[in-house]
């Protein structure tokens, strides 16, 4: 039976709750325990799939096809435990389930209320798989005091009451602001945040205090005293150069020890932090630097491509180099020459995306990379753009485009080299979609097998010909054009097992040009960099030696 750790935040948002949760998960693993991490989000979207990456950052896709919060990406990158659909829930999902049950007549005769119907639904969710792990870490999105968060706070309060004493603990993250004028760290916002938490029946066992300045011992004592938390359980969280220092930094501050103490686990098993020391060493002691351009649309908010940036960092770690990422807005050269924007980079990556805006720029980026022999990695939309570029400029299909853009514009302008996929096979089932279906959850989502061509560059990179990768898209390269494109030199070296869906294309006469229909970035870890990213960065290093 799992022990539960509930993680909440106060004072301000964006304190790094997800990161603290992920790092704690890694530390518990280092002590020999099994863990699972969950995110409970108070917003009313059923899932983040329909939210703009500008607002909410990237959508993280799980193997079982859930569109989830980007914090699940942190969880996976730190623990290596593949997240599942049942590790992410929002108020929207909870309410829609409760309302569905109401319509079905499951609660016949009853008045449906937040307590107990909504809170019960949340508690049932938290319980899923509780027998599988030693520790279940549940992060509540948002900040204490938010109206939307109340049912979640109430549910975890009840949950701890339902369980045996000592089976659940509460960890709260706050901020200690620094007043430069008086040279002081202020503890009052933390006190108020804990007061708010206590007013809804939750007493934190651990306080994690974010601070830009060292927290003096007497301030730690004061926080403990005023917030009714043991002094050793007031943990400092300082800014870090790299997020991957977090496990070692939290360990140095005593977080994992405080958690085990709070559960009364004594003696605590000794931690083995070898992998995190190796990760830190690779980050802090690079032997060079490469510059990679990410040519995208959501370049103002780096969180929109979070997993890609992380996977590139991992690729750098595999090669012991620092990867410097420049975010290049594809729209800048939709109608202009791309060269001035792309010269000087050692590699170019075109990530996934939706909609036509910026796609002509992305096509030019693919052309630039092909002609100038710069390593290119195209992911999802980035692969589709590379195929369209090849079709237009090498295979002579001058009007090649994607049906996605014609659908959006409501006019037929392009030869549909990339078309709307309406039926495909998942496992041993056929999935069907219609044009105009609801937007949420209607894509080809989650993990699918692919078969790689023997002797191809990708088979070499993966070290085998059978792979599984995660997908999130509606459109697909049409195999009708395969012969023409292959004759032009763009080879289809990865296909779905039934041979119908192109998964990987590559220019074989190019130093490194690969497009993938899936999202390899979602499976990369600092201690196990994804082979495609490791090899892409290796190619960038090689290219940097030429220029
Ligand atoms: N918009 C494209 C599609 O739906 C690509 C999606 C993506 O890049 N994730 O097929």
TrEMBL record:
Enzyme nomenclature, EC number: 6.3.4.2
Residues annotated to bind UTP: 13, 186-191, 222
A GO cellular component annotation in the UniProt record: cytosol
Membrane-spanning segments: none
Binding site for L-glutamine: 353, 381-384, 404, 474
UniProt keyword terms in alphabetical order: ATP-binding, Glutamine amidotransferase, Ligase, Magnesium, Metal-binding, Nucleotide-binding, Pyrimidine biosynthesis
UniProt catalytic activity: UTP + NH4(+) + ATP = CTP + ADP + phosphate + 2 H(+); UTP + L-glutamine + ATP + H2O = CTP + L-glutamate + ADP + phosphate + 2 H(+); L-glutamine + H2O = L-glutamate + NH4(+)
UniProt binding sites for CTP: 13, 146-148, 186-191, 222
Every CTP synthase N-terminal domain range: 3-264
InterPro entries per record: Class_I_gatase-like, CTP_synthase, CTP_synthase_N, GATASE, GATase1_CTP_Synthase, P-loop_NTPase
Record-listed ATP binding positions: 14-19, 71, 240
Pfam family, one: CTP_synth_N
Pathway: Pyrimidine metabolism; CTP biosynthesis via de novo pathway; CTP from UDP: step 2/2
A biological process from GO: pyrimidine nucleobase biosynthetic process
Misc. comment: CTPSs have evolved a hybrid strategy for distinguishing between UTP and CTP. The overlapping regions of the product feedback inhibitory and substrate sites recognize a common feature in both compounds, the triphosphate moiety. To differentiate isosteric substrate and product pyrimidine rings, an additional pocket far from the expected kinase/ligase catalytic site, specifically recognizes the cytosine and ribose portions of the product inhibitor.
Family, per entry: Belongs to the CTP synthase family.
Protein's job: Catalyzes the ATP-dependent amination of UTP to CTP with either L-glutamine or ammonia as the source of nitrogen. Regulates intracellular CTP levels through interactions with the four ribonucleotide triphosphates.
Subunit structure comment from the entry: Homotetramer.
Protein name (Swiss-Prot/TrEMBL): CTP synthase
Species of the source: Loktanella fryxellensis
Gene it is expressed from: pyrG
């Amino acid at each position: 039976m799992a022990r539960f750790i509930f993680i909440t935040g106060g004072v301000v948002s964006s304190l790094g709750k997800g990161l603290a949760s992920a790092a704690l998960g890694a530390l518990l693993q280092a002590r020999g325990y099994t863990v699972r991490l969950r995110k409970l989000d108070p917003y009313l979207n059923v899932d983040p799939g329909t939210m703009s990456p500008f607002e909410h950052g990237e959508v993280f896709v799980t193997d079982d096809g859930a569109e989830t919060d980007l914090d699940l990406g942190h969880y996976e990158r730190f623990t290596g435990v593949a997240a599942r659909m049942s590790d992410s829930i929002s108020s929207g999902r909870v309410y829609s389930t409760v309302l569905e049950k109401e319509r079905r007549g499951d609660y016949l005769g009853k008045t449906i209320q937040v307590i107990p119907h909504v809170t019960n639904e949340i508690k049932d969710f938290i319980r899923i798989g509780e027998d599988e792990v030693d520790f279940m870490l549940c992060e509540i999105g948002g900040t204490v005091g938010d109206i939307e968060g109340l049912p979640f706070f109430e549910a975890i309060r009840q949950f701890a009451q339902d369980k045996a004493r000592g089976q659940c603990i509460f960890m709260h993250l706050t901020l200690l602001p620094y007043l430069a004028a008086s040279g002081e760290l202020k503890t009052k916002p933390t006190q108020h945040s804990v007061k708010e938490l206590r007013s809804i029946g939750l007493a934190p066992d651990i306080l994690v205090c974010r601070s830009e300045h060292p927290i003096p011992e007497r301030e730690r004592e004061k926080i403990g005293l005023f917030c009714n938390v043991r002094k050793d359980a007031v943990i400092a969280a300082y800014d870090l150069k790299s997020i991957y220092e977090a496990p070692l930094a939290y360990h140095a501050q005593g977080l994992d020890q405080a958690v085990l103490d709070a559960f009364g686990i004594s003696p605590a098993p000794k931690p083995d932090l070898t992998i995190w020391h190796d990760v830190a060493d690779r980050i802090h002691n690079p032997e060079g630097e490469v510059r990679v351009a990410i040519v995208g649309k959501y370049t103002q908010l780096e969180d929109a491509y979070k997993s890609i940036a992380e996977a590139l960092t991992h690729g750098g770690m595999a090669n012991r180099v620092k990867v410097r990422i420049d975010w290049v807005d594809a729209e800048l050269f939709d109608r202009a020459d791309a060269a001035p924007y792309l010269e000087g980079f050692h590699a170019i990556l075109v990530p996934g995306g939706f909609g036509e805006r910026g796609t002509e720029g992305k096509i030019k980026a693919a052309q630039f990379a092909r002609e100038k022999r710069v390593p290119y990695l195209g992911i999802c939309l980035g692969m589709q753009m590379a195929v369209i570029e090849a079709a237009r400029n090498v295979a002579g299909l001058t009007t090649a485009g994607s049906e996605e853009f014609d659908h959006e514009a409501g006019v037929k302008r392009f030869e549909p080299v990339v078309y709307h996929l309406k039926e495909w096979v998942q496992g041993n089932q056929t999935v069907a979609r219609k044009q105009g279906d609801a937007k949420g959850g209607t894509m080809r989502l989650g993990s699918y097998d692919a078969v790689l061509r023997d002797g191809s560059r990708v088979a070499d990179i993966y070290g085998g010909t059978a792979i599984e990768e995660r997908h999130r898209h509606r459109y697909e390269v049409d195999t009708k054009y395969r012969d023409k494109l292959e004759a032009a030199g763009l080879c289809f070296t990865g296909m779905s097992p039934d041979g119908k869906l192109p998964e990987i294309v590559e220019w074989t006469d190019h130093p490194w040009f690969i497009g993938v229909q899936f999202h390899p970035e979602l499976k990369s870890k600092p201690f196990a960099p994804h082979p495609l990213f490791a090899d892409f960065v290796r190619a960038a290093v090689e290219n940097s030696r030429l220029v």
